[in-house]
Amino acid sequence: MSHDSAPDLLALHAVRVVGFADTPALARRFALDPGETQEHLLDAQACGWVARSAFADLAGWSLTASGRARDERLLADELAHVEGGDEVRAVHEAFLPLNARLQRACTDWQLRPAAGDALAPNDHADAAWDARVLHELAQIEHGLVPLVHRLAGILTRFRGYDTRFAAALDRARAGDGGWVDRTDVDSCHRVWFELHEDLVATLGVDRGAPA
Questions:
Q1: CA–CA separation, 96 vs 188, rounded Å?
Q2: pLDDT in tens, 71-84
Q3: Which of 94, 125, 130, 199 is most buried by a 10 A CB count?
Q4: Tens digits of per-residue pLDDT, 120-146?
């Protein structure tokens, strides 16, 4: 039976997964109550696990070094409690080859080598080139679905990565290419980044660690 993470853990973990963000955005990440999320974040701030800062018209929460360590300890305890370590590690190993393909696809979306310029920006004038990239993303999505289902069978907080990725890909196919790699929307790249961060945090490994 899949395990529901505690709201205070999810509030802290949302800062790790999403990165710098305000309370409503962090609450939305795991469908938490915004008021309760604010209280959990204030408690975490008092413990030195998160910090609140503002830049121009942007304000939000970020994770401190001690908060990162706290998040990983809580996740490790949770994973041990549900006896899911072996399965999550196996999923991570299966995820890494897909991750390499995703990185390459995003690079190909951003760059299209030309004569004399291997780093020429992709101006998206070559429909065949872009179609190939979108096809590759569809193949990556196909591989992602069973992995997310395996993870969600252990911890419910892993639900939705596959459907979010599919929704972003649908928007890109419909003509809005920003949904492949923009960081300010729930793009394919952003969803993938969050899943990768969720995995490495859960396992307590480095993002660049090999399988």
A1: 16
A2: 999 999 999 999 99
A3: 199
A4: 999 999 999 999 999 999 999 999 999
